[in-house]
Design a protein that fits this description.
This protein is an alpha/beta fold. The chain folds into 2 domains: 87 residues, Leucine Dehydrogenase, chain A, domain 1 (Rossmann fold, 3-Layer(aba) Sandwich); 123 residues, 3-Layer(aba) Sandwich (Rossmann fold), CATH 3.40.50.720. 42% of the residues lie in helices and 16% in strands. The chain has 10 helices and 11 strands. The protein has a 6-stranded parallel β-sheet. The chain has a 3-stranded parallel β-sheet with strand order 3-2-4, sandwiched between helices. Strand 9 and strand 10 form a beta hairpin. Helix 1 packs parallel to helix 10. The structure holds NADPH dihydro-nicotinamide-adenine-dinucleotide phosphate (NDP). The site of NADPH dihydro-nicotinamide-adenine-dinucleotide phosphate (NDP) has 25 residues, from helix 10.
Length: 283
């Protein structure tokens, strides 16, 4: 079997064209979706992510503000700026690029963002709402995965779904969304005994470990849908996912590539969350 490739760039383009139209409809009513992105420090990957987010806003016709602080900034200054953005009517979404430098209390920073503007969906209030099945904002990466499945006509209902990874930003919300879509969900992590037993049962396998090419063909049930969230840099500088793409695509029925899979969808769903926040404001 050769798997169908789920192309994140194609789906992202389709969704972003719709967002642009919706942003224009809002503009006709005198408002524009607005995103503020806060970057602390000079981490190279974070700089790229922030630039991509700001560019994506511009292409979709959104207002955006990039706020950059040196790595040794006093946390109080960042918290004060967040308070200003919370009260700024031009801003519908506030995002703090993680990770923050060590002298920051990341939880306190995420908590300082008004839940109505928490487009990453990391605020405890929004995590709780998601858990209750009544989400205000869905964290962007798992939101993108659910869009992938819907677009490809893959219904999780009744399926065995296995999520590799239990982080707050990917694994846990991913498992919650799959469960709410009526899959039977197993969450695996670094202490899981007999990973192979679990992965080989999966109809839908989501890999979010941060381990290059960890998921091999023997770990995958023939015909499974394999979603690769991982982004890893190989010694030669190339990017690769958590899935050994070539051999696994001979076994799976559908698979996302890296790059060009979940990555473009993550930024797209950030736009979706910002747009939805703006639309809620004018409703
Ligand atoms: P974390 O490091 O926070 O979490 C990794 C998870 O994988 C942990 O729960 C860990 O278990 C588990 N894990 C690690 N090694 C193993 C193992 N050998 N067997 C089983 N489980 C294991 O990472 P994130 O969730 O933040 O990110 C995961 C990956 O996704 C990374 O590559 C990241 O770059 C990528 N990513 C991609 C995005 C995109 O847009 N495509 C967005 C966000 C992340 P334990 O809890 O026990 O330590």
């Amino acid at each position: 079997m050769t798997a169908r490739i789920l192309d994140g760039n194609v789906l992202a383009q389709k969704l972003r064209a719709d967002f642009k139209n919706r942003a224009e409809a809002l503009a006709a009513r005198g408002t524009r979706p607005g995103l503020a992105v806060i970057l602390v420090g000079e981490d190279a990957a974070s700089q790229v992510y922030v630039r991509n987010k700001v560019n994506a806003c511009a292409q979709a016709g959104f207002h955006s503000e990039k706020i950059v602080y040196p790595p040794d900034v006093e946390p109080r200054l960042v918290l004060d700026r967040i308070a200003e953005l919370n009260a700024d009517p031009k801003i519908n979404g506030i995002l703090v690029q993680l990770p923050l430098p060590r002298h920051f209390d990341s939880d306190a920073v995420l908590k300082a963002i008004a839940p109505e503007k928490d487009v990453d969906g990391f605020h405890a209030e929004n995590v709780g709402a998601l858990m209750q099945g009544n989400p205000r904002f869905i964290p962007c990466t798992p939101y993108g995965v659910m869009k992938f499945l819907a677009d490809a006509g893959i219904d999780p209902k009744g399926q065995e779904a296995v999520v590799l990874g239990r982080s707050n930003i990917v694994g846990k919300p991913m498992a919650m969304l799959l469960m709410q879509a009526s899959a039977t969900v197993t969450i695996c992590h670094s202490q899981t005994r007999d990973l192979l037993f679990h992965t080989r049962r999966a109809d839908i396998l989501v890999a979010a470990l941060g381990r290059a090419r960890f998921v091999t063909a023997e770990m995958v049930k023939p015909g499974a849908v394999v979603i690769d969230v991982g982004i890893n840099r190989l010694p030669d500088g190339r990017l690769c996912g958590d899935v050994d793409f070539g051999p696994v695509s001979e076994v799976a029925s559908a698979i996302t590539p890296v790059p060009g899979g979940v990555g473009p969808m993550t930024i797209t769903m950030l736009l979706a969350n910002t747009l939805e926040a703006a639309e809620r404001e004018v409703r």
